[in-house]
Amino acid sequence: MTVSLIDVSTYLPGEPISADYYAQFAESDDLRDNLMFRAPKFRHHVAEDETAIDMVERAAAGLIERHGHDVIAGADILITHTQMPDVPFYGGGGGTAHRLGMKPNWVLDLHNGGCAAFVLGLKVARTLIESGEGRTALIAIASNAAGQAFNQPTVRRKAQAAVPGDGAAVGLVSLSDESPILDIECRTYGQYAGDMTIAVDPPRKWWQPGEGEASIGFTESKITKVLARGNRQVPEVSYAVCDRIGVKPRDLDLLVTNQPNRAFLRNWREALELPKERHRDTFDECGNMFAAGIPVNLDRAITDGQLKKGDVVMMSAFAHAGDFAGAAAVRWGGRG
């Protein structure tokens, strides 16, 4: 029984926003010179009245155009990851299913996958399809923190605010040998789960009312730890998959990762002994898109012809402060 990643389509909201936008707000920041926060040239922001479900619907348009609405609406499984759910108490699964005209047997919202959520979604989809729970799955990703959380008046003054970008993607997975998922490795590092924190001045829980705006609680010590974990975890899960499929990392046709910053991108391709032209990224066009980074870059590589029929693509990422990492290899069968 073979399960394939058939296709992916994506959406970037609004016009590109340049680094100059943040320069006008920038204030003195102890972390401004840290390599973690060297800003991209551009990024996209979700519109003020644009919901995560709106973004997913717009991302799905490419799949509907190429495969027909019935294929999307008839999917048995819907797996979603919403970075910032439109309502705190539930994710985007139900609303997304309704918007796309779906009545799936399975609707699952994945939050722990973070920047590696597309890889985790592939694993869940493949497992459910292989177990007979359906023949087709959609994986819907919405990254929408850049134009919301990071664009708050006091937060956008910080160095961290200039790096994120927003985007959405929908992947189509099916019982097929067209573009087989060769192998997937997912690892949870629960000991690091508490290392990503929200910082508010004066301190309060994220849901409590107050004057200060919430941002990510970065410190030099935390950044050092995250850099070390990310530099280690992404190559580790990638090597694990390569070992099982019998492909040396340096022989991969394409590497697609999340893209937190330029340092990670360089270190990962060097660890896998790959030249820059075989590691797709849009960091200077889109910034750190978190979970949307992998599918957006995969879509770009397919559209540009960089990923060709028969090529093996490795998708790999780590999440949050290093509490999760995953890698998936696909032999691409072409976009029909």
Structural key phrases:
336 residues; alpha/beta; five-stranded mixed beta sheet; 9 helices; 29% helix; globular
- Please mark out the parts with pLDDT under 50 across 5 or more consecutive residues, or reply none: none
The Rg value, from CA coordinates, equals: 19 Å
Strand content: 15-25%
Q: Main sheet?
A: 5 strands, mixed
Description:
It contains 9 helices and 14 strands. It is α/β, with parallel strands linked by helices. The protein has a 5-stranded mixed beta sheet with strand order 1-7-6-4-5, sandwiched between helices. Helix 6 runs parallel beside helix 7. The radius of gyration is 19 Å and the shape is globular. The mean pLDDT is 96.
Itemize the secondary structure elements and their pairings.
Elements: E1 3-11, E2 17-18, H1 20-23, E3 42-43, H2 52-67, H3 69-73, E4 77-82, H4 93-99, E5 106-109, H5 117-130, E6 136-143, E7 167-175, E8 181-188, E9 198-199, E10 215-216, H6 220-245, E11 254-257, H7 262-271, E12 279-280, H8 283-286, H9 293-304, E13 312-319, E14 324-331
Parallel strand pairs: 4-5, 4-6, 11-12, 11-13
Antiparallel strand pairs: 1-7, 2-3, 6-7, 8-14, 9-10, 13-14
Helix pairs in contact: 6-7
